[in-house]
Known about the structure:
- By secondary structure, this protein is an alpha/beta fold.
- It has a single domain, classed as FAD/NAD(P)-binding domain (3-Layer(bba) Sandwich).
- Helices cover 32% and strands 27% of the residues.
- It has 13 helices and 21 strands.
- The chain has helices spanning 10-21, 38-41, 59-67, 81-93, 97-111, 114-122, 143-148, 150-158, 168-174, 197-210, 254-259, 320-333, 378-393, and strands at 2-6, 25-30, 45-46, 74-76, 131-133, 136-140, 163-167, 184-188, 192-194, 214-217, 220-226, 229-235, 238-240, 244-247, 266-277, 287-289, 294-299, 302-311, 342-352, 358-361, 368-372.
- The strands form 4 sheets. Strands 4, 6, 7, 8, 15, 16, 17, 18 and 19 form a 9-stranded mixed sheet that branches. The protein has a 6-stranded mixed sheet with strand order 10-2-1-14-21-20, with helices on one face. The chain has a 3-stranded antiparallel sheet with strand order 3-9-5.
- Strand 17 (294-299) and strand 18 form a beta hairpin.
- The longest helix is centred in the C-terminal third of the chain and has 16 residues, at 378-393.
- The radius of gyration is 21 Å and the shape is globular.
- It starts with a strand and ends in a 20-residue tail after the last helix.
Amino acid sequence: MQILVAGAGIVGISTAIWLQRAGHDVTVVDREGPASGTSHGNAGVLAAGAVVPVTTPGLMGKAPNMLFDPNGPLFLRWSYLPRLIPFLTRYLSYATDAHVDHYATAMSSLLHDSVEQHQALAADTPAARFISTEDYCFGYTTRADFEADSYGWSKRDAQGVKYEVVSGAEYAQYDPVFGNTFETVVRCKNHGRISDPGAYVKALAAHFVEQGGTLQITNINDIETKDGAIAALLTDDGRLSADKIVFAMGPWSREIAHKLGVKVPFESERGYHIELMNPSAMPRSAMMVASGKFVLTPMEGRLRAAGIIEFGGLDAPASRGPLDMLRRQVKKLLPDLEYDEIVEWMGHRPAPADSLPVIGANDTGNLSFSAFGHQHVGLTGGPKTGRVIAELISERTPNLDLRPFDPSKFKDQ
């Protein structure tokens, strides 16, 4: 079949490669090119144990203090608040124990083998060199801070996430770069890291093109529908049609998805990172700094500090608050670190109200498919999502319960 994939991030490129390997003629359409958004700017962690959403019980009471704490992980552009309120109401309604369990079970099935999924996707390609298998660590300043996080760890326990709790002194024997900063460190097993997420996705895209795929750089302005189903993409280069169309446009998927009847309550989460170029010391593994809810990841030639949530829409420029917070936190954590310069970045994560991505057919005729909404785990879940979409299009049954990810789940709400 001839298939269009809208979006050239990790989800779109993964989908394109698996469709290509299944024998289809695939064209990827993107407004800027591979890894131009979040697939470039993420923390680079293959977080197989990321099975606990942000919306946990008690978030409603904590959120106001977090918003007014300049060193907290949550930011808001106050001018955007009136537009945000309907989404925020839905988003906070999922801060229940029952939904956390639902989310954890669903996401565990999607993420548990993320390293193997990346290895299979990148096998025998230049992209394979960017993948490493190593612990993903959580650093806690005090034992009490770790114990205060017991709810999340109990949910990971229930999903079989393997981890080891060690003292900060013991961890320092493995990696001395943090000194005595952490009293307790959790080392999550069966995780991985991408040493340069942007270069990794670009290498995968180059492989896709070398194998006969088409990459078309153009704006998607609208869609054409017929009898309630999609007929074509309307782009700067004209009308593009195919047997099937896959939407993997991340936070830019909402408007088109709504036209297709995929009524997902949806917002853009603005994510930030800073990179310290040519640092004088480098951690051995990615470290989630629990006090600031950001991740320090060693990358090729630089140390990236990534994370933070800001609600402010797709159009506003970057805010200074999140970037300055990351600078302060890194300086506090590694006061003696030297580097050539700091590079700043802001991008957008797709955030459904229930935090679950949408993966599957949008219509009964299976003419279009959704593959977006991965929030904080797009890199982790991208390859498996792409494989699942390729299996659905090729009329094979994925070994995954797709009901939690059904694009039609909000249709009657």
